[in-house]
Amino acid sequence: MQRLICAVLCIPSSHINIYISFCIVQGTVLNSWKVVWVVLSDDGVEFFKRKADSAPKGMIPLKGAVLTSPCQDFSKRALVFKLSTAKNQDHFFQATHLEERESWVKDIKRAITCLQGGVKFARKSTRRSIRLPDTINLSELCILMRDQENGVKEQKLEKEKRVYNHCFTGGTVVDWLISKDKARNRPEALMLATGLLNEGFLQPAGDVSKQGVEGGTVSTVLDEPNALYYFADSGFFCEGYSSDEDVIVKEEFRGNIVKQGCLLKQGHRRKNWKVRKFILRNDPAYIHYYDPTKGDEYPLGSIHLRGSVITAVEFVPDAKRYDVDGNLFEIITSDETHYFLQAATSEERKEWIKAIHTVSKTGK
């Protein structure tokens, strides 16, 4: 029996999980793809109709499950992966972009591996498993690494006929940690880098680095020039073909994509809230939004950001049709049009505000 799920993959911060984002689920009756809120736990994947719901609509058990990626069952849909349960039920997920799918595939595989080995899958075990001292604050360390002036420099690197934007090598991370006196030697720096990877601050890019995260409960950062990594939600994207031969729409990567992902957006007429995929570019300074169930070929609308004001807000006027609470922000354009958006977490809201503010000041 098949159950098609085109879900917006989201993980609330209250759960002990690995990855936070939106994704897409296909219904059982009409076979239409819909956006849902998804939670990856240590033994299953739960999905909700909306973030505010206290009870899930359903749960996919991971014990004995098999993950297939890429999934080629849908000729007109890219970035799909399949989760087959022990009872031969197939569940299909579609991510909004390549890096998001790869992060979910990595984390679900690790959860399945942990279940097979009788090990609890939880981010809290990372510090103990790699023996990080309690005095190490990985969140603060990541902030220092992402500093524009003194942090790790993001680069545009070409490997195996593919161009990786906004990334760096494992060796670069190790060199930076030693140069900033965060580690005394390369083995100690690799331990810190591995902690950042397992906590989700770093993500693997390319075949070599992905080999270090496949199989096993703890990923490993590789101190190699061909092992590429990027900061989570940094605007990383790859031009060309991925290693799994998924066809990536070239047009989406033209221009300088600063950030992309899904947010809740309030409509201007009915004032209801819907999940939209947003792609932020800085030349020109536009953010386009799409129906995540229908791809990125035709945007539903765009916001010209030049001269806009972006602020965090605590409430939204006329927010009656949807239970929204927290992580809200507002974009006021130069022609005084107001857009209200909601991120999944407070950290994600900060990152979107910072990225949009920078584009509004520097873009055309």
From TrEMBL:
Cellular compartments per GO CC: plasma membrane
Domain PH: 32-113, 256-361
InterPro entries: DEP_dom, PH-like_dom_sf, PH_domain, Pleckstrin, WH-like_DNA-bd_sf, WH_DNA-bd_sf
Gene3D superfamilies hit by this protein: Pleckstrin-homology domain (PH domain)/Phosphotyrosine-binding domain (PTB) (2.30.29.30), Winged helix-like DNA-binding domain superfamily/Winged helix DNA-binding domain (1.10.10.10)
One Gene Ontology term from the biological process aspect of the record: intracellular signal transduction
Pfam families linked to this entry: DEP (PF00610), PH (PF00169)
Key words, A-Z: Acetylation, Phosphoprotein, Repeat
Domain DEP, residue spans: 148-233
PANTHER family reported for this sequence: PLECKSTRIN
Protein name: Pleckstrin
Annotated organism of origin: Oncorhynchus mykiss (Rainbow trout)
